[in-house]
Amino acid sequence: MKLAASLTAGILIASAASWAAFGPVGADDREEAFEIPKGTWARRMAGDKVEILPGEVRLMLGVKDVLVLRNRDDVPQVFGPVLMMPGQSFKLPFEMASSYQFACTAHASGQMTVTVEPAPAVGWERLAWRTRALIASGGWAWKS
Amino acid sequence: MRFALACLLLLANAVYAAEGKLKAGVFDPPRAAPEFSLNGSDGSKLQLSRYRGKVVLLGFGFTSCAFVCPTTLATLAKAQKKLGPGGEDVQVVYVTVDPERDSPERMRRYLAAFDPRFLGGTGTPEQLANVRQDYGIQATRVPIGGDPKNYAVDHSSFVYLIDREGKLRAMMPYGHSADDFAHDVAMLLKK
Known about the structure:
The complex is a heterodimer of chains A (144) and B (191). Helix content of chain A is 31%, strand content 28%. Chain A is α/β, with parallel strands linked by helices. In chain A, a hairpin with a 7-residue loop joins strand 7 (98-103) and strand 8. The model of chain B is unreliable at 5-19 (pLDDT under 50). In chain B, helix 2 (68-82) crosses helix 5 (178-190). Chain B has a single domain, classed as Glutaredoxin, CATH 3.40.30. Chain B has helices at residues 2-19, 68-82, 104-112, 125-135, 178-190, and strands at 25-32, 37-40, 45-47, 55-61, 90-96, 119-122, 139-143, 151-155, 159-162, 167-172. The relative contact order of chain B is 0.22. Classes of the chains: A alpha/beta (144), B alpha+beta (191). Chain A binds chain B through residues 67, 78, 81-85, 87-93, 95, 98, 100, 102-103, 105, 110, and chain B through 21, 23-29, 31, 134-136, 138, 140, 154-158, 171, 173, 175. Strand 6 (89-93) of chain A pairs antiparallel with strand 1 of chain B.
Protein backbone atom coordinates (compact mmCIF):
# COMPACT_ATOMS: atom_id res chain seq x y z
CA MET A 1 0.00 0.00 0.00
CA LYS A 2 2.78 2.39 1.00
CA LEU A 3 4.74 1.40 -2.07
CA ALA A 4 1.77 2.17 -4.33
CA ALA A 5 1.31 5.60 -2.73
CA SER A 6 5.01 6.40 -3.09
CA LEU A 7 4.97 5.24 -6.68
CA THR A 8 1.94 7.44 -7.46
CA ALA A 9 3.51 10.42 -5.75
CA GLY A 10 6.73 9.84 -7.70
CA ILE A 11 4.90 9.64 -10.99
CA LEU A 12 2.98 12.84 -10.19
CA ILE A 13 6.13 14.74 -9.25
CA ALA A 14 7.94 13.50 -12.35
CA SER A 15 4.98 14.50 -14.53
CA ALA A 16 4.80 17.95 -12.98
CA ALA A 17 8.55 18.45 -13.35
CA SER A 18 8.55 17.34 -16.97
CA TRP A 19 5.64 19.66 -17.75
CA ALA A 20 7.43 22.50 -15.98
CA ALA A 21 10.57 21.82 -18.00
CA PHE A 22 8.98 21.20 -21.38
CA GLY A 23 5.54 22.83 -21.24
CA PRO A 24 4.94 25.95 -23.32
CA VAL A 25 5.37 29.33 -21.63
CA GLY A 26 2.51 31.19 -23.31
CA ALA A 27 0.32 33.17 -20.93
CA ASP A 28 -3.27 34.34 -21.31
CA ASP A 29 -2.47 37.84 -20.14
CA ARG A 30 0.81 39.09 -21.56
CA GLU A 31 0.37 42.68 -20.48
CA GLU A 32 2.54 44.46 -17.93
CA ALA A 33 0.45 47.48 -17.05
CA PHE A 34 1.28 50.76 -15.33
CA GLU A 35 -1.29 53.39 -14.57
CA ILE A 36 -1.31 57.08 -13.66
CA PRO A 37 -4.11 57.28 -11.10
CA LYS A 38 -6.61 60.10 -10.97
CA GLY A 39 -5.28 63.03 -8.96
CA THR A 40 -1.59 62.43 -9.78
CA TRP A 41 -1.12 65.81 -11.41
CA ALA A 42 -2.69 67.57 -8.40
CA ARG A 43 -0.41 65.62 -6.07
CA ARG A 44 2.64 66.59 -8.12
CA MET A 45 1.56 70.24 -8.10
CA ALA A 46 1.28 69.99 -4.32
CA GLY A 47 4.91 68.90 -4.18
CA ASP A 48 4.51 65.12 -3.86
CA LYS A 49 7.16 63.14 -5.67
CA VAL A 50 5.02 60.55 -7.42
CA GLU A 51 6.93 57.67 -9.02
CA ILE A 52 4.83 55.35 -11.15
CA LEU A 53 7.13 53.85 -13.72
CA PRO A 54 10.32 52.19 -12.51
CA GLY A 55 13.54 53.20 -14.25
CA GLU A 56 13.71 49.72 -15.70
CA VAL A 57 10.77 47.58 -16.78
CA ARG A 58 11.58 43.90 -17.28
CA LEU A 59 9.53 41.82 -19.70
CA MET A 60 9.78 38.30 -21.09
CA LEU A 61 8.88 37.21 -24.60
CA GLY A 62 5.78 35.04 -24.78
CA VAL A 63 5.03 35.58 -21.09
CA LYS A 64 4.83 39.31 -20.38
CA ASP A 65 5.80 41.09 -23.55
CA VAL A 66 3.27 43.89 -23.90
CA LEU A 67 3.88 47.14 -22.05
CA VAL A 68 0.64 48.94 -21.24
CA LEU A 69 0.51 52.52 -19.98
CA ARG A 70 -2.75 54.14 -18.90
CA ASN A 71 -3.49 57.72 -17.99
CA ARG A 72 -6.45 57.80 -15.59
CA ASP A 73 -5.75 61.37 -14.55
CA ASP A 74 -7.72 64.41 -15.69
CA VAL A 75 -4.86 66.09 -17.57
CA PRO A 76 -2.51 65.05 -20.40
CA GLN A 77 0.68 63.45 -19.10
CA VAL A 78 3.97 62.36 -20.57
CA PHE A 79 4.08 58.78 -19.39
CA GLY A 80 7.19 56.85 -20.27
CA PRO A 81 8.03 57.81 -23.83
CA VAL A 82 4.61 59.09 -24.89
CA LEU A 83 2.22 61.95 -24.33
CA MET A 84 -1.14 60.56 -23.30
CA MET A 85 -4.50 62.22 -23.05
CA PRO A 86 -6.79 61.70 -20.03
CA GLY A 87 -8.39 58.27 -20.25
CA GLN A 88 -6.04 57.13 -22.98
CA SER A 89 -3.96 53.98 -22.94
CA PHE A 90 -0.89 52.98 -24.91
CA LYS A 91 -0.08 49.37 -25.66
CA LEU A 92 3.40 48.52 -26.94
CA PRO A 93 4.20 44.93 -27.92
CA PHE A 94 7.77 43.59 -28.04
CA GLU A 95 8.86 40.81 -30.37
CA MET A 96 12.62 40.81 -29.87
CA ALA A 97 14.67 40.23 -26.75
CA SER A 98 16.79 43.32 -26.22
CA SER A 99 17.25 46.39 -24.07
CA TYR A 100 15.20 49.36 -25.26
CA GLN A 101 15.95 52.94 -24.20
CA PHE A 102 13.26 55.58 -24.24
CA ALA A 103 13.56 59.27 -23.47
CA CYS A 104 11.41 59.88 -20.40
CA THR A 105 11.21 63.12 -18.46
CA ALA A 106 9.61 61.36 -15.48
CA HIS A 107 12.96 59.85 -14.55
CA ALA A 108 15.95 61.70 -13.16
CA SER A 109 18.21 60.05 -15.74
CA GLY A 110 15.91 61.26 -18.52
CA GLN A 111 15.68 57.68 -19.73
CA MET A 112 13.55 54.65 -19.19
CA THR A 113 14.79 51.18 -20.04
CA VAL A 114 12.65 48.26 -21.09
CA THR A 115 14.58 45.02 -20.89
CA VAL A 116 12.98 42.19 -22.82
CA GLU A 117 14.34 38.74 -22.04
CA PRO A 118 13.89 35.68 -24.20
CA ALA A 119 11.52 33.00 -22.97
CA PRO A 120 13.36 30.38 -20.90
CA ALA A 121 14.70 27.54 -23.01
CA VAL A 122 13.09 24.12 -22.83
CA GLY A 123 14.58 21.92 -20.10
CA TRP A 124 16.41 22.94 -16.96
CA GLU A 125 16.17 26.65 -17.67
CA ARG A 126 12.39 26.51 -17.96
CA LEU A 127 12.09 24.25 -14.92
CA ALA A 128 14.24 26.62 -12.86
CA TRP A 129 12.26 29.63 -14.07
CA ARG A 130 8.93 28.03 -13.14
CA THR A 131 10.31 26.95 -9.77
CA ARG A 132 11.52 30.50 -9.03
CA ALA A 133 8.15 31.89 -10.06
CA LEU A 134 6.34 29.38 -7.85
CA ILE A 135 8.52 30.21 -4.89
CA ALA A 136 8.17 33.95 -5.48
CA SER A 137 4.42 34.09 -5.69
CA GLY A 138 2.73 31.00 -7.06
CA GLY A 139 1.73 33.46 -9.79
CA TRP A 140 1.31 33.61 -13.51
CA ALA A 141 4.11 31.31 -14.58
CA TRP A 142 2.29 28.30 -13.21
CA LYS A 143 -1.01 29.39 -14.60
CA SER A 144 0.43 29.56 -18.11
CA MET B 1 -18.99 18.32 -38.29
CA ARG B 2 -19.82 20.93 -35.65
CA PHE B 3 -16.46 20.33 -34.04
CA ALA B 4 -14.67 20.87 -37.34
CA LEU B 5 -16.64 24.07 -37.90
CA ALA B 6 -15.80 25.31 -34.41
CA CYS B 7 -12.11 24.56 -35.05
CA LEU B 8 -12.23 26.46 -38.33
CA LEU B 9 -13.86 29.45 -36.63
CA LEU B 10 -11.24 29.40 -33.89
CA LEU B 11 -8.46 29.23 -36.47
CA ALA B 12 -9.98 32.09 -38.44
CA ASN B 13 -10.20 34.17 -35.26
CA ALA B 14 -6.58 33.41 -34.42
CA VAL B 15 -5.42 34.40 -37.89
CA TYR B 16 -7.51 37.59 -37.72
CA ALA B 17 -6.11 38.44 -34.31
CA ALA B 18 -2.52 37.88 -35.49
CA GLU B 19 -3.04 40.02 -38.58
CA GLY B 20 -5.09 42.59 -36.75
CA LYS B 21 -2.35 43.73 -34.43
CA LEU B 22 0.00 46.54 -35.24
CA LYS B 23 3.69 46.07 -34.53
CA ALA B 24 3.79 49.64 -33.22
CA GLY B 25 2.50 50.82 -29.86
CA VAL B 26 -1.19 51.65 -30.17
CA PHE B 27 -3.13 54.54 -28.61
CA ASP B 28 -6.61 53.75 -27.38
CA PRO B 29 -8.70 55.71 -28.05
CA PRO B 30 -6.75 57.48 -30.79
CA ARG B 31 -6.85 61.28 -30.66
CA ALA B 32 -6.71 63.74 -33.51
CA ALA B 33 -3.09 64.40 -34.44
CA PRO B 34 -2.36 68.00 -33.42
CA GLU B 35 -2.30 70.32 -36.41
CA PHE B 36 0.74 72.45 -37.20
CA SER B 37 1.79 74.94 -39.78
CA LEU B 38 5.50 74.96 -40.60
CA ASN B 39 7.77 75.89 -43.48
CA GLY B 40 7.88 72.88 -45.74
CA SER B 41 11.03 71.70 -47.46
CA ASP B 42 9.12 71.94 -50.77
CA GLY B 43 8.67 75.69 -50.28
CA SER B 44 5.01 75.46 -49.26
CA LYS B 45 3.24 75.65 -45.90
CA LEU B 46 3.49 72.26 -44.28
CA GLN B 47 0.16 71.48 -42.66
CA LEU B 48 -0.84 68.06 -41.51
CA SER B 49 -4.42 68.53 -42.70
CA ARG B 50 -3.13 68.64 -46.29
CA TYR B 51 -2.55 64.91 -46.05
CA ARG B 52 -6.00 63.72 -45.01
CA GLY B 53 -6.66 60.56 -46.98
CA LYS B 54 -3.03 59.47 -46.66
CA VAL B 55 -1.22 57.69 -43.89
CA VAL B 56 1.37 60.05 -42.44
CA LEU B 57 4.59 58.84 -40.85
CA LEU B 58 5.72 61.68 -38.63
CA GLY B 59 9.24 61.77 -37.24
CA PHE B 60 11.41 64.34 -35.51
CA GLY B 61 15.12 64.81 -36.07
CA PHE B 62 17.78 66.96 -37.69
CA THR B 63 19.95 66.87 -40.75
CA SER B 64 23.24 66.84 -38.82
CA CYS B 65 22.18 63.72 -36.94
CA ALA B 66 24.91 61.13 -37.24
CA PHE B 67 23.08 57.88 -36.70
CA VAL B 68 19.44 57.72 -35.56
CA CYS B 69 17.88 59.98 -38.22
CA PRO B 70 19.64 58.47 -41.25
CA THR B 71 18.75 55.00 -40.02
CA THR B 72 15.11 55.92 -39.46
CA LEU B 73 14.77 57.70 -42.80
CA ALA B 74 16.41 54.86 -44.69
CA THR B 75 14.00 52.44 -43.00
CA LEU B 76 11.00 54.58 -43.94
CA ALA B 77 12.20 54.85 -47.54
CA LYS B 78 12.54 51.08 -47.72
CA ALA B 79 9.11 50.58 -46.18
CA GLN B 80 7.49 52.95 -48.65
CA LYS B 81 9.07 51.06 -51.54
CA LYS B 82 7.88 47.75 -50.09
CA LEU B 83 4.32 49.03 -50.15
CA GLY B 84 4.44 49.31 -53.94
CA PRO B 85 1.57 51.37 -55.36
CA GLY B 86 0.16 51.69 -51.80
CA GLY B 87 3.24 53.74 -50.99
CA GLU B 88 1.71 56.62 -52.95
CA ASP B 89 -0.86 56.96 -50.16
CA VAL B 90 1.85 57.44 -47.57
CA GLN B 91 3.50 60.73 -46.67
CA VAL B 92 6.65 60.87 -44.61
CA VAL B 93 6.97 64.13 -42.67
CA TYR B 94 10.16 64.91 -40.78
CA VAL B 95 10.12 67.88 -38.43
CA THR B 96 13.42 69.37 -37.41
CA VAL B 97 14.55 69.76 -33.80
CA ASP B 98 17.38 72.01 -35.00
CA PRO B 99 15.84 75.11 -36.63
CA GLU B 100 19.08 77.08 -36.49
CA ARG B 101 20.79 74.85 -39.00
CA ASP B 102 17.89 73.21 -40.82
CA SER B 103 16.56 75.56 -43.46
CA PRO B 104 13.83 74.29 -45.82
CA GLU B 105 16.40 73.97 -48.62
CA ARG B 106 18.86 72.06 -46.48
CA MET B 107 16.08 69.70 -45.40
CA ARG B 108 14.96 69.22 -49.00
CA ARG B 109 18.44 68.19 -50.10
CA TYR B 110 18.93 65.95 -47.09
CA LEU B 111 15.57 64.16 -47.35
CA ALA B 112 15.82 63.75 -51.11
CA ALA B 113 18.80 61.50 -50.55
CA PHE B 114 16.40 59.03 -48.94
CA ASP B 115 13.27 59.64 -51.00
CA PRO B 116 12.32 62.80 -52.91
CA ARG B 117 8.71 62.40 -51.72
CA PHE B 118 9.70 62.96 -48.08
CA LEU B 119 8.78 66.35 -46.68
CA GLY B 120 10.63 68.28 -44.01
CA GLY B 121 9.23 70.91 -41.70
CA THR B 122 11.00 73.78 -40.00
CA GLY B 123 10.02 77.06 -38.37
CA THR B 124 10.92 79.36 -35.54
CA PRO B 125 12.24 77.80 -32.32
CA GLU B 126 8.92 78.77 -30.64
CA GLN B 127 6.80 77.16 -33.39
CA LEU B 128 8.82 73.96 -33.19
CA ALA B 129 8.75 73.91 -29.40
CA ASN B 130 4.95 74.07 -29.58
CA VAL B 131 4.83 71.17 -32.03
CA ARG B 132 7.14 69.13 -29.81
CA GLN B 133 4.98 69.85 -26.81
CA ASP B 134 1.83 68.78 -28.66
CA TYR B 135 3.45 65.48 -29.58
CA GLY B 136 5.40 64.87 -26.37
CA ILE B 137 8.77 65.04 -28.10
CA GLN B 138 11.95 65.54 -26.09
CA ALA B 139 14.86 67.45 -27.62
CA THR B 140 17.96 68.63 -25.79
CA ARG B 141 20.94 70.37 -27.33
CA VAL B 142 24.24 68.73 -26.42
CA PRO B 143 27.39 70.84 -26.99
CA ILE B 144 30.36 69.18 -28.67
CA GLY B 145 33.72 70.62 -27.67
CA GLY B 146 33.95 74.34 -26.88
CA ASP B 147 32.46 75.69 -30.12
CA PRO B 148 28.85 76.85 -29.55
CA LYS B 149 28.05 76.15 -33.22
CA ASN B 150 29.08 72.55 -32.83
CA TYR B 151 26.38 70.55 -31.13
CA ALA B 152 24.15 67.52 -31.43
CA VAL B 153 20.53 67.22 -30.34
CA ASP B 154 19.34 64.32 -28.23
CA HIS B 155 15.76 63.73 -29.29
CA SER B 156 12.88 61.28 -29.20
CA SER B 157 13.54 58.80 -31.94
CA PHE B 158 10.16 57.19 -32.53
CA VAL B 159 7.83 57.68 -35.49
CA TYR B 160 4.12 58.45 -35.18
CA LEU B 161 1.63 56.72 -37.46
CA ILE B 162 -1.31 58.95 -38.39
CA ASP B 163 -4.24 57.40 -40.24
CA ARG B 164 -6.16 58.68 -43.25
CA GLU B 165 -8.58 60.55 -40.98
CA GLY B 166 -5.80 62.41 -39.23
CA LYS B 167 -5.90 60.36 -36.05
CA LEU B 168 -2.75 59.61 -34.16
CA ARG B 169 -3.01 55.86 -34.07
CA ALA B 170 0.35 54.49 -33.06
CA MET B 171 3.98 55.07 -32.25
CA MET B 172 6.80 52.94 -33.65
CA PRO B 173 9.90 52.93 -31.43
CA TYR B 174 13.32 53.31 -32.99
CA GLY B 175 14.88 50.11 -34.30
CA HIS B 176 11.89 48.51 -36.00
CA SER B 177 12.39 47.14 -39.48
CA ALA B 178 11.02 48.35 -42.79
CA ASP B 179 8.85 45.21 -42.81
CA ASP B 180 7.24 46.28 -39.54
CA PHE B 181 6.50 49.74 -40.90
CA ALA B 182 5.14 48.30 -44.15
CA HIS B 183 2.97 45.87 -42.18
CA ASP B 184 1.43 48.60 -40.04
CA VAL B 185 1.00 51.13 -42.82
CA ALA B 186 -0.69 48.49 -44.99
CA MET B 187 -3.12 47.84 -42.15
CA LEU B 188 -3.88 51.53 -41.71
CA LEU B 189 -4.33 51.97 -45.47
CA LYS B 190 -6.94 49.19 -45.53
CA LYS B 191 -9.14 50.88 -42.94
